């Protein structure tokens, strides 16, 4: 299965968080690596998607869409933070 990147789940995350999340920084709960969501390794699996850490391959996020409602499980993340937008 081909790995995608965090941009593949940008739309789903936008639905859930109401914000552009690909620029948010996530911290892996297993190895402590921090990376932009856009750089997560993403695998699309019906009915949702799984995002993994590029360093240790731990599952960081699980997204499941059921009847148009997207649920996100962030248990693999130690932290998830939005970077302040510049120039605003
Ligand atoms: Zn990791």
Number of helices: 1
Please give the radius of gyration in angstroms.
12 Å
Mean pLDDT: 91
Q: What percent of residues adopt helix (DSSP H or I)?
A: under 10%
Query: What is the distance, rounded to the nearest whole angstrom, between the alpha carbons of the first and last residues?
Result: 40 Å
Number of domains: 1
What pattern of helices and strands is seen along the backbone?
A: EHEEEEEEE
Strand content: 35-45%
Instruction: Count all strands and give the number.
Output: 8
Helix/strand/pairing category: mainly beta
| Assembly level | single chain
Low confidence ranges:
none
Report strand order across the widest sheet: 1-4-5-6-7
Query: Main beta sheet: strand number and arrangement?
Result: 5 strands, antiparallel
> What small molecules are bound in this structure?
zinc ion
Judging from the principal axes of the Cα atoms, what is the shape? globular
């Amino acid at each position: 299965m081909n790995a995608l990147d965090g941009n593949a789940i940008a739309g789903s995350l936008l639905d859930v968080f109401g914000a552009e999340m690909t620029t948010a920084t996530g911290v892996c709960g297993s190895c402590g690596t921090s990376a932009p969501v856009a750089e997560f390794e993403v695998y699309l699996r019906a009915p949702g998607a799984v995002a993994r850490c590029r360093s240790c391959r731990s599952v960081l996020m699980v997204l499941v869409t059921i009847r148009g409602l997207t649920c996100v499980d962030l248990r693999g993340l130690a932290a998830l933070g939005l970077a302040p937008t510049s120039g605003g």
